[in-house]
Design a protein that fits this description.
Beta-Lactamase; alpha+beta; PAS-like_dom_sf; 126 residues; 5-stranded antiparallel sheet
């Protein structure tokens, strides 16, 4: 049994929306190395809730033929402040999962990105 603090109504609704629509989000701080994932992203990747994946680990889970597409996606995020989109496949516990990813940079006042924020939608058939 694990103990978790009670969620607010907004947090409960957000968790329900992520679960019902197979959505999740993640944030990778490139300065501190901190990684934050929503419950939905942990569900999609079947990852330990206390151990969100680094971008490097995420890259290791890509199908080899999708690595360049994911690299172009990350480059597009870091190059501008508009949303970037891609569809890529990951191997998660032996299963191929297809995800649509939307991403944007979080930029400092000087315009340089310091973090990557992604939203994922799992398209893998249930």
């Amino acid at each position: 049994m694990t103990w978790r603090p009670a969620l607010t109504e907004a947090e409960l609704l957000a968790n329900d929306a992520q679960q019902f629509a197979s959505l999740g989000w993640g944030n990778w701080d490139m300065l501190s190395g901190a990684v934050r994932w929503s419950d939905g992203l942990h569900r999609i990747f079947r990852a330990d809730p206390d151990m969100p994946w680094s971008l490097e680990y995420l890259c290791d889970a890509l199908l080899p033929e999708d690595v360049s597409r994911f690299a172009e996606f990350i480059i597009a995020i870091l190059a501008g402040d508009e949303l970037a989109w891609t569809r890529v496949r990951f191997v998660v516990r032996g299963e191929i999962r297809t995800l649509d990813l939307l991403g944007r940079p979080l930029a400092a006042t000087d315009g340089r990105p310091w973090a990557v924020h992604l939203v994922a939608r799992d398209l893998t058939p249930i």
